[in-house]
Amino acid sequence: MSVSKMEVFDNWLKEIVFPGDVYDFVQQIRDLKTEDQHLREVCLYTNQFKYHISASDRPDDEGYLGCQVTARKQRAGEDWNRGNDLPDGPFTEETWRKILNAIINYELVILSKFTKPIVDTPEDIF
User: Fold this and answer.
1) What is the DSSP string of 10-59?
2) Residues near 89 by beta carbon (within 8 Å), at least 6 away in sequence
3) 3 state SS of 64
């Protein structure tokens, strides 16, 4: 018996929250199954952003994976939350990895340009 795309999607989500319970970290927004397709939408939250991931499985094509990011807080002077489209494409592991890499990229912060001065320390201290 073959594994459905939604079972694969569940396994991918389990991998990113291992060893915890997926639904302690992932909010399921929609799980709609019709004769024509199975659509699942989930959200992942960090301190600054909400990541909305859509997955669909249609018997007549390869399916779809996509992600959007929205800031959880408005910037000073703005009355909207900024957001962007992240990678999307066919329901493949390659698309999933692109989405994960984009999420990691969004969460990275630039290192300070300040560097600690090098101080000569006597060898016998260590």
Assistant:
1) HHHHHHHHTTS-HHHHEEEEEEEE-SS-EEEEEEEE-SSEEEEEEEEE-T
2) 64, 65, 66, 95, 98
3) strand
What global pTM score does this model have?
Answer: 0.84
**Length of the chain measured in residues:** 126
pLDDT per residue as tens digits for the range 15-65: 999 888 999 999 999 999 998 899 999 999 999 999 999 999 987 788 999
pLDDT at 114 over 70: yes
Domain boundaries, the chain: 5-125
How far apart (Å, rounded) are the C-alpha atoms in residues 37 and 99?
A: 22
Q: Pull the structure tokens for residue 24.
A: 């302690």
CA 95 to chain centre: 12
Residue 117 pLDDT level (bands cut at 50, 70, 90): confident
Residue where the block lists tokens 């319970």: 21
3-state class of 90 per DSSP?
coil
How far apart, in whole angstroms, are the C-alpha atoms of residue 21 and residue 79?
35
Say if residue 1's pLDDT is above 90. no
